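[recover] target loaded
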């Protein structure tokens, strides 16, 4: 019989050999998923033996991870702003730095109500979180592809805000009405030159269309910025995530588009990350 301890240590070593970061954490998460328990429960049961059925299931999950499939796709979930979101292939996995957008909205518009939009919704992490954090807010979630909109709807239902999150398939806000109090977006901003050097988990598994933003990485962001400038209420905000070298170009574009106030916020590592533009 294989003990939980032996399973974790064995797969930790195999993950390390494959160049996978957080090797032990990955082994624990995947085993916990196979067991149907939390990761902390696994740590309390290290000397227990695994049944043949569980061992087979857990090994299958780890074999997928060994091929650099993201652990979030394998277990089907990712935490964002303290809440669990369903993720699957076809949607970008939410990153911790994107949580900064929610933190900034809470500071800039603590009593936010009215209408907001999340352009390029992906898993719906931003749209759904905004709806949960601001109970008087209606949120439009847009995406070009059906899978992100399906996942966004499911996450809105999971968190009890489906009546206030509206999903629409469109390019940015190209068919959207005007009069938004807030627009948020995490558009694709990787350049074609940067793309081959991304981690295998990202490059080989996450949707390329959610990562590469045109020849210079800015094409999608600039298109969204122009659309938003025409659709925000006076005093409304656009918060857009971007690459760490793109702040200057986006600030200049925002001023050209007619925004009254423009600045860049840095992420937790001190890198330029969020364009904040006020209409």
């Amino acid at each position: 019989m294989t003990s939980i301890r032996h399973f974790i240590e064995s797969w930790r070593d195999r993950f390390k050999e494959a160049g996978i970061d957080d090797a032990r954490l990955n082994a624990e998460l995947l085993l916990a998923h196979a067991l149907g328990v939390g990761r902390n429960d696994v740590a309390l049961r290290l000397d227990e033996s695994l049944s043949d059925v569980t061992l087979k299931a857990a090994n299958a999950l780890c074999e997928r991870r060994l091929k650099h499939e993201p652990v979030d796709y394998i277990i089907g979930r990712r935490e964002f702003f303290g809440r669990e979101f369903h993720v699957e292939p076809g949607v970008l996995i939410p990153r911790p730095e994107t949580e900064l957008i929610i933190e900034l909205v809470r500071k800039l518009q603590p009593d936010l109500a009215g209408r907001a939009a999340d352009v390029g919704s992906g898993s719906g992490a931003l749209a759904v979180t905004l709806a949960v954090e601001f109970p008087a807010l209606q949120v439009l979630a847009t995406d070009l592809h059906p899978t992100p909109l399906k996942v966004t709807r499911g996450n809105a239902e999971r968190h009890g805000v489906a009546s206030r999150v509206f999903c629409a398939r469109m390019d940015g806000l190209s068919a959207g009405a005007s009069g938004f109090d807030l627009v948020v977006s995490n558009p694709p901003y990787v350049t074609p030159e940067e793309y081959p050097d991304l981690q295998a988990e990202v490059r080989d598994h996450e949707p390329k269309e959610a990562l590469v933003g045109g020849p210079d990485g800015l094409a999608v962001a600039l298109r969204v910025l122009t659309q938003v400038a025409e659709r925000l209420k006076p005093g409304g905000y656009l918060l857009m995530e971007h690459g760490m070298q793109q702040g200057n170009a986006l600030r200049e574009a925002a001023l050209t588009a007619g925004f009254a106030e423009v600045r860049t916020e840095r992420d937790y590592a001190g890198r330029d990350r969020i364009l904040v533009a006020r209409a």
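[recover] notes: Residues 52-66 form the longest helix (15 residues).
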